[in-house]
Amino acid sequence: MAGEEQRSSEIAVDRPAGFGERLLGVLLDRARELPPQLIAPVIAEEIGRIGGRDVSVLLQDYDQLMLTPLPGGKLVAGEPERIDDSPAGRAFLRAVPVEQPLADGVRMFLPLLDGSDQVGVLALTLDSADDDDRRLLRRLASLVGNMLLTKSGYTDLFFRARRRETMSVAAEIQWSLLPPLAMTAPQVAVAGILEPAYDIAGDSFDYALNEGILHLAVIDAMGHGLNAAVLATVAIGAYRHARRTDVGLAELYAFMDTAIDEQFGPDQFVTAQMSRLDTATGHLEWVNAGHPAPLLIRDRRVARRLEGPGTLPVGFGGDQPQTNELGLRPGDRLLFFTDGLVEEHRPGGEEFGEERLIHVIEGTGRDGENVRETVRALSHTLMRERRGITTDDATLLLVEWRGGGADHLTAPGT
């Protein structure tokens, strides 16, 4: 019996030329009609064709602390793995494959990418891995990541797997509004995080990369709970509508202001920052409507606060705002945040404050860390500094301008 299993394994991994392309093509063809609950078994089945075993699909939880296993037939559904100190976590945060030698083979951890956003990690074991295996598995993981994203539009299976706590209705609304938490392009990168993940209500952010312009918005709707979530929903909807008509920042503010005022009246408002970054030149424009000033981070030091003329919060009918401008250098980072981050304090104690925020920023992270690693490490460090206290929503949005161009991606032969 053992000999038959060995011969079967040898046959499985003795792949002729073109095997990988056919395997991916078959999986892509099957994916069109696969119901969500069968994705996992099919993935495990196809990986078995290249000699893989012990397959797991690990998805990031909402707190960005753990990678939780997706349940499903033929998948190994073990314990959640910590992002901070595991091979799976390194693959996830750095968006690169990680290999872990085993006594009977090698454990492979491959980031599941939807474009540049990390969905999770695909883990499997091979007897051994060569460059052809690695290339095939990278492509397979990319396909799996896209399958998970596509199917998530009409199932709750993946959302349930990511939850480790009960989520409030307000948080449910807010998470449904968000763009991907991270985006990476050759010239610019973005990463954001919300706190508390399972009870967020009035904070939100949005971004879009349109024809070389990165559009950004961070908002903080007044109040708490469901009312704040509804207010934030209207604010983000109005922002997107105005942005898609390609108006300037001042006109965008005016449109949002009118929408909030007409829907909620003069007693409710939203603080906000809206900005535009030219990804070719690094030219930044922003409008501040009652928000804390963003921070410019250069060479891992906070170089300055981006202060300038502002206007009233959205919904108060402020004057037409003045647009502030700044030229960035390649490698510069911008940190946008809501006031819940710095106004938090223990009962009877002082506010956390912006000076402590700057101290944490300059003491967190390492050289070469990408924006997703940095914003996550910063958020969790700040949470520890505040001893886990979150009486108000808090949002971090980190942007890095890299400079250069993207024409090489369309060059012949690439």
List the keywords.
12 helices, Phosphatase 2c, domain 1, alpha+beta, globular, Beta-Lactamase, six-stranded antiparallel beta sheet
Biggest sheet: strands side by side, in what order?
Answer: 3-2-1-6-5-4
By helix and strand content, what is the structural category? alpha+beta
Following the backbone from N to C, one meets helices and strands in this order, namely HHHEEEHEEEHHHEEEEHHEEEEEEHHHE
Number of domains: 2
Mean pLDDT metric: 86
Largest β sheet strand count, sense and barrel closure: 6 strands, antiparallel
Give the % helix: 25-40%
> Stretches where pLDDT falls below 50 for ≥5 residues?
1-14
CATH class descriptor name of the largest domain: Alpha Beta
The CATH architecture designation of the largest domain is 4-Layer Sandwich
Large-scale geometry: globular
Rg from Cα: 23 Å
How many angstroms separate the termini?
47 Å
CATH fold assignment of the largest domain: Phosphatase 2c, domain 1
Report strand %: 25-35%
Number of strands: 17
Name of the CATH superfamily of the largest domain = PPM-type phosphatase domain
Count of DSSP helices? Answer: 12
